[in-house]
Design brief:
With 538 residues, the protein is α/β, with parallel strands linked by helices. It contains 20 helices and 25 strands. The strands form 5 sheets. Strands 3-2-7-23-24-25 form a 6-stranded mixed beta sheet, with helices on one face. Strands 9-10-11-12-14-13 form a 6-stranded mixed beta sheet, with helices on both faces. A 5-stranded parallel beta sheet has the order 18-19-20-21-22. α2 crosses α7 (204-220). The longest helix is centred in the middle third of the chain and has 17 residues, at 204-220. The two termini are 26 Å apart.
Amino acid sequence: MRTRLVLSSARLLDPGSGTFLPETALAVSETGRIAALGDDREIRALAGPDTEVIDLGGAVLTAGLVDGHLHPVTGAELTHGLDLSRCTGLDEVRTALAGAVRELGRGDWLFGWGLDPNVFGDEPVGIAPFDTVLADAPAFLLLFDAHSALASRRALELAGVDGPRTFDQASAEVVCDAHGRPTGLLQEDAACELVERVAPRPTRTEQRERLAAALRAMAAAGLTGGHVMDANGDSLALLAELDEAGELPLRLRVAPWCQPGTDADGVRALIEQQGTGGALWRVNGVKLFMDGTIDNGTAWLERPDCHGESTHAFWPDPAAYTHIIGELHRAGVPTATHAIGDAAVRHALDAVEQAGRGVRHRIEHIETVPDDTLPRFAELGVLASMQPTHCCDFTRADHTDNWSRRLGEERAARAWRCRDLWDSGATVALGSDWPIAPFPPLGVMAGARHRRPTHDLTQPPHNPTQALTPLEALRAMTVNPAFAASEEHEAGRIAVGHRADLTVLGADPLSTPSTELADVPVVLTTVDGRVTHRSETV
C-alpha cells in the first residue's frame, strides 16, 4: 500500500496512557490511517517516490486536538465586525464605537461582537449609554454569550420593532422599559433575528472566504477537528463546497438545531439528515436548548437569580423537549443539549433517563449544578461538554462579576465543576464555544488547568479545586471527543489503524506549566495524513 506521509524524529505522546511510545516515527497510508509505528530507519524505508517525509526534530506528536463545541460558520461571520471583547467599561465601548462610526459610509450598518455585560456595572444592560455615539447609525452589537444583542434606535426603527413581542422560544424577549419602549436589548435568537433579517448580509463569496480563513487559523492553532453545534443558513452548503474543493482543514461533526415548535415532520427530517456529509464533515447528532444564559437572565435555575430572573425553560413546554429526546433516542440519534442552569441540567438528565440507555447523549456548558446532579452523568452515560475558558474570562475569583452576582455565593461557588464531574465518572469533553471564547485548543486546555483570566494570569483562579490535571485536559480534547462521537476505535489515540489526524507541538503539553501552555508552538497539523498547517521550523 502506498505511503502518503512519513513523520520521523518525533516524540510520540499517547493521550490514552499519558506516556511516550518507544517508537520515534510513523507512516500514514493512502487511506489516511496510521499504517506503521517504528524507529526512524524502518519507517523511512516505507517511503515511496511520492511520499511526503517530514523530520520533526524531536517535537511532540500526539493525537489531533478536537474542539468539543464550536460554531465555525457563525463565528466567521460574527467576528468580522468590531471586536468589543477587550472593553472593560462603558467609556472604552463608547470610544470603540465612535471610531467605528467615523468609518461608516452613508447607510452602512455597524456590527460589533464580544460585548461583556460587566461593562455596565450595576446599570441595566441597554443601548441608552451609546445613543449619543451611535446617533442615527444602525448598529447591532452582539453580547459575548451570543444569546443576546443590543440594537441601536435606528436599527430598531428599520426592523419595525417598537414594543414587546411573543415568541415560540419562551426566554426570547424584546426587553422594554416601564412604558413599553424597547431598551435595545434583545434576548435569544428569535428576538435578535427581528433586527438581523433587515441588516445587510455578506455575499456567498464573502461567507466562504471568511469561513475558510477561520478554519485555516484553527488548523494553525493545532485543531484537527470540531463538534459543530449548528447547521443554520448556508452552513452545510459552505462546508460541502470547501470539502469538495479540498479546502476543509478540519474534520467536522455537525449537529443541526431542533427548536421549540418543531413538529413530527421536523423531527423526522432531522433523523433523515443523519449521516449525510462529505469526506471531512458529517451530520451526526441534534442540538437542542434547555435554557439561555445566566448573564442575561435567561438560564433555567431552580431558584431565581438576584434579579428574580432565570426562572423558565427555553421550551414553553419542557415536556415537548422530553418527548423529542425520546423520539431521537429511539432513532439512535445522539443529542447535545445546551443546559447552563441547574434546573435545565436536571431536566435534560431526566429526559435521557426516561429515554433509556444505548445512545451517547451529551449536555453542553453545565455552568452550575448541585452535588446530587454530578453522579447522574455517569449513571446515565451522558457526556459532559464544558468550556472552562468561559469561567476564566467572564467570571472573577472574588465573585464581583455579573454571572456570580446573579447567582449568589452558593451557586457561584460551584462554577464549572470539571473536577467533580470527572471524579464522579463522567466523560468530560472540552471546547471553546467559539466565537464566545478563543478557539486555540492549547488555551482551552490551559484554562482547564489554571482557571485564571487569560488576559492576566497573575489574577487568582476561580474555584481552583475544579482544575483538571495536564493529562485529563489532554484526554478531554483527544480521547473523550472521539468517544463522544462513537469513534474511539479510530480516533483519539496514536495507534496503527487510527486516523492520521495529528497535532505536533514544540513542547510536551503534560510537563509545560499551565500558564505557559497557550504559548507552546504548533509545529504541524495533519488531517487524514494531509498537512493542514506547517510551521517554518520543519
